[in-house]
């Protein structure tokens, strides 16, 4: 132990401007500490700060308490098992907790997070996550897609699998469902427990004009662009069958509608709905989560003839399941869509949860979606 | 566009405590802006802060300048093409730049980074990156390893490839070479340019007691533990042949020493050296980068009989190539090792660069390593 610490000190001495603030610095207090009762303590060493706020999902916005030497602390009430996003505000400036290496992006901001009991990688069989570039019209060298292959995929070279296409929301990318959505951990757990069939999960980037997530694509911008028409202008939806064909050619899929599902959150629910409408015999399972259905001008062909396309889709007798929280800002739009479907006598399932437009819900919806698809 | 902004506003209104600080907030200024002359401007909105320092690789530690309303700015001199780590210190507290979503972990701290010209994903053919769990003695459900498959791997099912095993340093994990090492971008570029052979690159987690990087493994701790004996106690090195056998069984490798290379930085160079010594006919190419060779008690069997193992290794006539910077804190240890090899008449190559124990060097070394291996 002592020698290893010396080695670390060597690293620190060698890189004074960079590594001095390593978390191994004894001055840096333990943070995001989850107690046995599932309360969480956040700590930050900030002797010269005048005010430190804790903001986010742990406790709303609350002031942290300073001790006599400059250590600021806040302990939450006991929390339900979940992933919690938070950040700090130090003298008015938003900051990440320097003691916590768990960081994820949501929309266009970074958050620390803490896993209270749930969504860790448990000691069960694990699937493989791939980041692959697939060809698409208009992209000389393709676009990046994340693909989950269930445990055993490589060891059973004759076996074929159903496929879930899982789409992110506005401001997300091909990593969103893996990071904040904890898709790999959820799939591992549901499959290991026998509640979900082993399946391939395909998570593309729904921002048609971006070839990959920030830092992985050909753009050098350090932050995603403002939302633009390329997110909901029909291009992503129109090109979607190319992705499905590529997946069926490159993976051992059960390449038929009965073994294909599509689901997505928010903007990804919009994509889900319109992709299903334009390809009525491509997916037997269609699950929009907290979705928007109509937005902006919608002049692209994929948005034309909605009534006729709905008729064609329901004629194929898909299992359509809508999910939304009762505080979601898109709630009313969902009410209206269901009223239209009801007026046509179209069958669907509907699950209403508490809460709003948030990952907390989408992770739970994903658990439900993977449990109910491919059991025919 | 207007409608999309409304949609975003809907998101913000719906998640006031979480998303208000989205980077799309017009108050948040553009940051990490790379100018045509390769100078970089960092900006942060911090009207109530008394002092904001920019720290890291962009300009050392320098004060940022406040304008009359509270926008702090610093513009660097023109910079060489590279990846630069930085962070801010706001009234004494280390903070990430809230306007920059490019973040990576080094040792146990988070840094913002900016790509000045180099190491982006260019418009060339891209390999696939996998995160796979492989079985290992003592781990019921395995350990996580990152694997790079070159472009074309899936489309040429008869072709077999050489394999580079690429090991991280103390405080790193199976993602380190992909994030700060930019291994996928380097391999894509070197292979596309014909300077490197298409190859598989295997990047395991060298911390034997950890099954995966923080956030991906079975441990819930938000920061890596202090360095412990499990990093350099022989367990990782002793079990390494299991990984090689698993790779040869699960990937289309050229499964022989002539088509296997091993390289690693710092602690990963230590692992490289001792794995090669204990398996003299496993790797034809052995490249320790800024490596440590002797550390701590080294009581494990894999560290015994060094002279005999060296003799056996050199008898197999491997191509051994040492890399180190002339300011590295491990420089003297490298001098001593080479003197010992010289005294035995063992052949090797040696490259000495400027600089110290830093990723800046390791990315350049990786470019050299992949150019010189597998060309026989």
Can you give me a brief rundown of this structure?
Chain A is an alpha/beta fold.
Can you walk through the features of this model?
The structure is a homodimer of 376-residue chains. By secondary structure, the first copy, chain A, is an alpha/beta fold. Chain A has 9 helices and 18 strands. Chain A has an 8-stranded mixed sheet with strand order 11-12-14-13-15-16-17-18, sandwiched between helices. In chain A, α4 runs parallel beside α9 and α5 (235-250) crosses α6 (267-278). The first copy, chain A, is globular and about 70 Å long. The N and C termini of chain A lie far apart (56 Å). At the A-B interface, α1, α2, β7, β8 and β9 of A face α1, α2, β7, β8 and β9 of B.
Given the C-alpha coordinates, what overall shape of chain A results?
globular
Proportion in β-strands of chain A: 25-35%
- Annotation, overall tally of beta strands of chain A: 18
What structural category arises from helix and sheet content of chain A?
alpha/beta
Per DSSP, the total helix count of chain A is 9
As laid out across the biggest beta sheet of chain A, the strand order is 11-12-14-13-15-16-17-18
Q: What is Rg of chain A?
A: 23 Å
Quaternary organisation of the protein chains:
homodimer
Helix percent band of chain A: 25-40%
Largest sheet of chain A: 8 strands, mixed
Given as residue ranges, the uncertain stretches of chain A (5+ residues, pLDDT < 50) are 12-24
Helix-strand pattern of chain A: HHEEEEEEEEEEEEEHHEHEHEHEHEH
